[in-house]
Amino acid sequence: MDTRTTETAQAAGPAPATADEVTGRLADQLLRLSRRLHRAQRRLLEPLGITPAQARLLRTLAHCDEPPRMADLAQRLDVVPRAVTTLVDALEEQELLRRVPDPHSRRVIRIELCDGGRRALDDLRSARRTAAAEILAPLDDGSRAALTELLAALDPDEGAERRRC
């Protein structure tokens, strides 16, 4: 390569990123931001005495049309049933939810939120918003709205109604 070709390439600037490079960078950015959000939420959840896994179960429970069975919760959370039992035990001990008999089958136990669970969900929502506000602080309102629209386009569950468990 002669000197003129090198000078021309340098003047043009760096080569544009390929679609794969952009996608890879975006994936890395999303993962880093997700981790930051999880760390911030965990920090804010700690004073509430609720773990992230317990918070996820409470949020899932709140989106059920009727009190679900533990097997239904395990399926929705994509965990083994024993993991749900451990979470339910801990949340029941904190009086955030309770086991109730199914009105149609004596053998079935369902899980429902208690008043304490509903209050905890309000606290959880506040913690999530606070954590998100910390991370999104550099963005103005217009940028936040644009980011919301972009992410909604990628989320097939965006705007989904309450789902049966």
For the structure shown, list the relevant keywords.
165 residues, mainly alpha, 64% helix
Write up this protein.
The chain is mainly alpha-helical and 165 residues long. Helix content is 64%, strand content 6%. The chain has helices at 3-12, 19-45, 52-62, 70-77, 81-93, 115-136, 141-154, and strands spanning 97-101, 109-113. A two-stranded antiparallel ribbon has the order 1-2. Strand 1 and strand 2 form a beta hairpin. The chain is elongated, with a radius of gyration of 23 Å. The termini are far apart. The relative contact order is 0.12. The model has no long low-confidence stretch (mean pLDDT 88).
List the helices and strands and how they pair.
Blueprint: H1 3-12, H2 19-45, H3 52-62, H4 70-77, H5 81-93, E1 97-101, E2 109-113, H6 115-136, H7 141-154
Antiparallel strand pairs: 1-2
Q: What's the story with the biggest beta sheet?
A: 2 strands, antiparallel
| Count of distinct strands | 2
* Largest sheet: spatial strand order: 1-2
Order of helices and strands: HHHHHEEHH
**Uncertain regions: pLDDT < 50 for 5+ in a row?**
none
In percent, how helical is the residue content? 55-70%
Distance between the termini: 65 Å
How many whole angstroms does the radius of gyration measure?
Answer: 23 Å
Number of discrete helical segments? 7
Structural class: mainly alpha
The coarse silhouette is elongated
Oligomer status? single chain
How would you state the average pLDDT, rounded?
88
